[in-house]
Amino acid sequence: MMNDAFLKVCRGEKVDYTPVWLMRQAGRYLPQYQAVRQNVDFLTLCKTPELAAEVTLQPVDILGVDAAIVFSDILIPLEAMGVPLEFSEREGPVISEPVRSETAVDCLIIPDTKQDMPFILDTIRILREKLKDKVPLIGFSGAPFTLATYMIEGGSSKIFLHTKKMMFQNRKVFDYLMEKLTRTVISHLSSQIRAGAQAVQLFDTWAGMLAPVDYREFALPYVKIVVSEVKKDRVPIIYFVNNCAGVLRVIKESGADVIGIDWRIDMADAIEILGGDTVVQGNLDPCALLLSKEEIEERVKDILRKGEGAKGHILNLGHGILPETPVENVITMVEAVHKYGKKV
Ligand code: CP3
Question: Quick one: which atom of ligand 1 is closest to the CA of 27?
Fold first, then answer.
């Protein structure tokens, strides 16, 4: 039988213990991931279903987490939209032709996941079979605003000047781009759900870089559309914004089933802002996994205690796990959640 604690908490149901998974749980901190990655580049790994499924399963078996997240990347759909994408070892994602004009947005295709990204659906099908007696599978997408920043900036950024320039000086083009991204995200998520994803997470990594007024105006409306469309498919949707503290009050309006919290805000404060009728996910600092075993346990206990104030709590990191993380510390964290998060 599948362990369904994670799905139950997503739905707001009672469970015997607090479930845990980690953002970026498949990755370079695992020697077993490095071994697979040695022979293929990152994009090839994402596009080879047998290998993508293999690395998805690694943290489930090694760490004993309560959910698996399909191995892919939020930027995969950008390529399918017609925007060439590369991953450089040093710089991360590189988009050599940033999208900054109406003509560029005109050229963007709304991809059909089945036709243009069949590998992710094949990966999901393999995984559902392999995870039958284990844990649920999470599908995901980048949120429209975060995807827009990569397209407009041409990669990662610190201040998002080009994005804000388009928002403030060329609103028509920005809206046009966001509409195309929103349609892409909806179709990408519902294809993953049809292939077998049992929950989905929307990653809005950079939306916390917006002033609250701008978040409400330029990011939230599109998230609301995605959430209401995904809800028709009847699977839970988790919405994660990194640096969420300043916009948490507004995030509540997204309608998502679960709200992801980063570590820069105390979990008790986050729950107070959201209200006790919310299901939350988070929020251990990824760097806390560099602490001693005892200190990791203390931090876990603290977050578990604070999570009791919410309608439901899924323990997770406040952002992705870092490549420098010792695997035994991650195991300590997962064991601590299962040990101290028991409700009976
Ligand atoms: O969580 C998982 O285990 C599933 C796989 C997953 C990856 N990326 C694999 C990955 C998921 C859910 C993501 C999401 C993602 N990708 C986000 C949102 C979450 C976040 O971290 O904020 C973002 C912003 C990206 C874009 C991205 N992908 C960047 C900026 C980078 C380079 C930085 C880095 O960490 O290397 C990536 C590469 C990437 N995505 C790797 C992995 C395992 C490392 C690639 C490698 O093996 O070299």
Answer: 43
Q: Which atom of ligand 1 is nearest to the CA of 92?
A: 32
Report how far residue 50's alpha carbon sits from residue 17's, in angstroms, rounded to the nearest whole number: 32
H-type helices in the chain, by residue range?
5-10, 31-37, 42-46, 49-63, 76-80, 102-106, 113-116, 118-130, 144-153, 161-169, 171-195, 212-214, 220-231, 248-251, 267-274, 293-307, 327-340
**pLDDT by residue (tens digit) across 195-234?**
999 999 999 999 999 999 999 999 999 999 999 999 999 9
The answer to whether residue 332 scores a pLDDT higher than 80 is yes
Question: Chain-wide mean pLDDT for the chain?
Answer: 97
Strands 312-317 and 279-284: what pairing?
parallel
In angstroms, what is the span from residue 24 Cα to ligand 1's centroid?
7
Active site residue 222: no
pTM for the model stands at 0.97
User: Which of 21, 24, 123 most suits a substitution to test ligand 1, by most atoms within 8 Å of the C-beta?
Assistant: 24
CA atoms of 89 and 317, how far apart (whole Å): 24
Strand partners, 88: 92
**Type of residue at 314:** I
- Is 125 tagged catalytic? no
**157 C-alpha to ligand 1 centroid (Å):** 15
Ligand 1 center to residue 43 CA distance, Å? 11
User: How far out from the chain centre does Cα 223 lie?
Assistant: 14
**pLDDT on residue 344:** 72
> Residue 43 — φ and ψ, nearest 5°?
-65, -35
